[in-house]
User: Fold these one by one.
Assistant:
Number 1:
Amino acid sequence: MTINPQHQALIRQRNIRKVLQAVPVYILLVLASVVIGAPFFWMITTALKPFAEVAIYPPKWIPSYIRWENFVEAWQSAPFARFYVNSVFVSVTSTILQVGIGLFSAYAFARIEFPRKDALFLLVLATMMIPGQMTLIPNYITLSKLGWINTYKALIIPHAANAFGTFMMRENIMSLPGELFDAAKIDGAGHLRTLKDLVIPLTRPILGTLILLNFIGHWNAYLWPLIVTNTANMRTLPIGLVYMRMQEGGSIWNLMMAATIFVTAPILLIFIFNQKQLIEGVTRGAIKG
Amino acid sequence: MTGDLQRTSDQPKNLSVPSGATSPGWRRHLKERLTFLAFIAPNFILFTIFTFWPIFFTAYLSLTDWNMIRLTRKMVGLQNYQQLFATPLFYKVVGITLLFAFTTVVIRMAISLFLAMLLNQKIPGRSLFRGIIFSPHVTTTAAAAMVWVFVFDSNFGLLKWFLDIFNIRSPKWLSDPKWAIWAVIIVAIWKTIGFSTVVYLAGLQSVDKELQEAALVDGANAWHVFRHVTLPLLSPVTFFLMVTGIIGALQTFDIVSVMTGGGPLESTKTYVFYLYETAFQQFRAGYASALAMVFFVVIMAVTLFQTRMARRWVHY
């Protein structure tokens, strides 16, 4: 079959129109990306500049030479090694506890019979409506009574329970075909074994997403660590960064931005390598929640 | 996976539940129930101590006069609430918070719907744009706010350079009481726009294309299709984003704490920052608890409003 020339011309015309339509879309998206990305660019370029090029106007976009010493000096200007250890330990432990605890209760709500368990589940959901700021004072008092202020326990335990993750995992477990669970039961598998051999392998994607989201959440936490830590050796990275600024007077911007990169780089790397999964996880959570 | 199950079933069964035939039904039931309780226990114990109990404790503390150090608390009845509603600063803080929340949410939603429609086109490089637009959402707020302080710098800042292109004189953003709140609003929009954009995008992708095409065939122009087909179909998403956006904006703390500390002249003192300051810098636990109770009631009201109205207003 041959396509007549007229038809060909029409197709070409339509393709050209399509491309032309895409041009304004591109321009607008590039514009939006430049505006939204500008602070990141500003952070990186400032962190690489010698001090003399920070406080000049108009700004120098590309430093005349890259001053790597900024990172060394920023690292030494506050106990950043310690902040890192604290942030990593607190975020990892909190994440493991949160996902683990959530998984157990999600499984129970999805697969174990219990009278009026839906009412109990509503109680879990209700905690999502209670703003965290409301609980600051009582939790601070509880922790002081326990002697936990300025310890890892204070940073980890109060946020180890988790409603959102429980909710997501419960949905996920309930969507698994019931025959699988019947088969496991017939095989004589108890709940623990079903959880380990059946549920965890099958819910791996959602577990991965929750682990990433929780980790990011704990890494970025600011208000709670600000309240329950009071010495430098217990501070997490965001708190340490803010204290560094208070000590430095906040005008040595190349060092400040180098320190800011210490705080944000791990999260941005996680995001870059798991972009699709994270965005989908966040969107799904939003639509279901 | 099935291999795993197969293997475990060949192992001695002393770990697993005895089968139903050998044990009486009530015993199996009991065991099920105990397992259920054991599985949900960690979550519930923590929720009880750190989420439910604090509500009652805050309610109690709000009726006392206490500096968080003294061993005894003095009951003062509703005095904290009376004082609260007689304090001009309280109204100022509420006003700032509401202005901040509504402005942030309205501007953010308008822009993010627009961005979502751009991202909804089938063009190469889409996921890169989406990633850049979304990235502030995952970035540590305190650290991002720190960068923004330098962006807003009225001598060497990025924004001064940008405004100079249009011959606009840069205000002294963070030290001018008129402008500081707008600086905070800009950062809050920047931080949250990616989230609403991807949620809108998901909404757009689930909108039935045929409805839009049918409208076009019927002679409607692009604007009419958007206004009378797309927008109504998106209303559940809009409503969700509006309510969660307002709740989130009412809770803003990190940005204010890092960028302005509530100043200058208390012009950026949002509710949660005021609460923090009262409780943890001035140690007025009773008064701060009254603030927390008012906050709690407002958030609950917004949430209940959401669940009520979602049914009535939203066009599915």
Note: Residues 87-313 of chain B form a domain with the MetI-like fold fold (CATH 1.10.3720.10).
Number 2:
Amino acid sequence: MPQSNQGSLWSRSSAAGRLSERSLWGADGSVALGDLAWGSSLGARLEELAGRCVLVATADQLTAALALIELDGIARRLILSPPDLPTEHLPFVITAAAVDAVVSDRPALEAGTPGAASFVSCSLKVAPAAFERTERYQTEWILLTSGTTGLPKMVVHTLPSLAGAIQPGSAAPQQLLWSTFYDIRRYGGLQIFLRALLGGGSMVLSSARESTGDFLLRAAARGVTHMLGTPTHWRNALMSPSARRLTPQYVRLSGEIADQAILDHLRAFYPGAAIVHAFASTEAGVGFEVGDALAGFPASLIGRDAAGVEMKVKDGSLRIRSARTAARYLGSRSATLPDADGFVDTGDIVELRGERYYFVGRRDGVINVGGQKVHPEEVEAVLNSHPQVRISQVRAKKNAIMGALVIADVVLNGETGAASGRGKGLEHAILEHCRAALPRHKVPAAINFVSSLAVAPTGKIVRRNA
Amino acid sequence: MSVRSAVLSQFKQVAQEQNKKLAPLSDDLPLSESGLDSLCFAIIVTRLEDALGVDPFTSTEQTEFPVTLADFIRFYEDAAK
């Protein structure tokens, strides 16, 4: 029986079936979904939040998960505060999103929340409560993404736009156990959370206080079957001995360009798993997914209206029109998100080679070498395909003659890995490898061997425009 | 390593990497006839900054850009002082 994409998160999660067998596991505890049929994590105060604009600002992912399940369809607006939102940005968020209630597991926030009308604490303890979980609103979900400078951008979604790419409840005999390195208050993590709930599965949530190795062990101990991360998350995970303990059936990548090297590594590491890379962004929603374990995507996806998504390439960048794109930004001067034709510009530059499109980088990350454009990501893809390179980051270095040159920071494979002792011979070998694959202005002028690269809380390599 | 030998070794190295035919390196060789193009010089400047710790091309004290190889070496020698 086809299930509707209407209904609240709770009603759709229930409709996916087997509530009593399904759980959400955090680092500090777990909650059986069935318990929410008779109880609440919000004390007896759910009713107070009806029709309100609720900022969900918890320290723990699991408490946030419970609040989202309980409040969709009840609150008018849910604002998902990522764990690393700077406190000084709270007043802006509260004003711009007209927040009139705060849900948190942090007592400190109660005192420090300016102007919010009411504070409701939530906990992992589901207590019996009398209420009607009837849907009253098409709740707006507000996701925060970091702007290039300063204040966060607030992106407006609804459950239907967020869940547009998700097939409802499967009749699979085996229950799927999802997990992700992402925080569920970011788009990528939220997709997995919704997949678990709407698809009739369970989920292991990550924790910012846990090392990658410890998280992988916890996920492996629960028997996670479906796992999502950025390419950076996965490169990091594959360096951990705990990664061997995981036996996924499905490995998903999103959030950054999946180059051939990381796809090959994952395929070799998890031979039993389907390796899928998806294009998704907070603003453009889930565009498509590719399951052939090859970098890029088939050109045939462009121009076709498939499964409710239409894509085109204009001025070099990928544009997406679908019911999954965000509606608008809140509280900023930016224009509405989709253009007059309903397309959202992803800002991701693609290049057609043969029958396939490849991502070459972000429009705003271009390095200008004497008037010729270089996308850092295309150079990184070549560097990463060298057998001794684990990961790389390409950046601009100012140069009086060409304006800028390409420089690479490289983390090497192997135990020593670090900056020491690999010397000029290897630098020359890696540069030769680049020269064989890239036009000369794209080949790094120099390579710095480093022991690690900075990773943002989003699981992506930190990029600073030079 | 002296400034002179650092410069000469980078000229040879970059020419080889970039498949450029380098003219015989004499002091009076005009840089424009060295066989190296602007990308080659840009790379040399970057590498010399690593090796010598100076980039005279971005220094405000150096006003006249070098024309010959001897100028180029002196340019770096002055900056490295």
Note: Helices of chain B lie at 3-17, 38-52, 69-80.
